[in-house]
Amino acid sequence: ETYGSTLVSKEAITNLGLLPKHHLNVLHPMSQDFQYMRTTIMESLMPTFIFNLKHATNLNLFELGTVFHPVIQKNQLPDQPLELGVISTTLNFAHLKGVIEYLAHYFNLPLAITPKNHSHQLFASAAAITLKKIQVGEIGIISASKVPQASCAFYLNFTACIPHMYSTIQY
How far is the C-alpha of 69 from the C-alpha of 79, rounded, in Å? Predict the structure, then answer.
């Protein structure tokens, strides 16, 4: 389990192929490393993963944390959903897909995993995680240019899933 900062650097954003202009900018950052509010859990999970790969070869990390999505109306607080991120060197795509399917079964969620043609630069190949035909996450094989060894990851908007969870587990 990791607990990353909700504030990230421009480098963490651009390394995933995202644009800083789509992020909330901190008015008075303490340093350039904490200048933006993350829009995906992967912006803080990836640097932690890469750092820890220097000390271990078999690595599995996860984080459940808040991300921040700007809203169009002025003087409105950003959307602040919880996002689950998982990244692994020991679990391949099929295994991580199984983790998602297990979570879907456990929480009685109608999640589907469907092929996706385009993704941000984190993934070499990816699939969308959908809930009632609305994308709530993504799973993929991490691009070899991002990490020194084969790795897979997924992220899931957990807040979007909560209203669809059944209140009782059905057996």
Answer: 5
Q: What is the pTM of this model?
A: 0.89
Closest CA to 139 of 169, 111, 113, 107: 113
Q: How far apart (Å, rounded) are the C-alpha atoms in residues 97 and 52?
A: 23
Q: What residue has token string 């909700």? A: 6
**Would you say residue 170 has pLDDT above 70?**
no
CA dihedral of 104, 2, 13, 10, whole degrees rounded to 10: 160
Per-residue pLDDT, 119: 67
First vs last Cα of the chain: how many Å apart?
Answer: 29
**Per-residue pLDDT averaged across 11-28, rounded?**
90
Pick left, alpha or beta for residue 140 (phi over 0 → left; psi -120 to 50 → alpha; otherwise beta).
Answer: beta
**Cα 163 from chain centroid (whole Å):** 20
What is the spatial distance between Cα 152 and Cα 143, in angstroms, rounded to a whole number? 9
Strands 152-157 and 123-131 come out as: unpaired
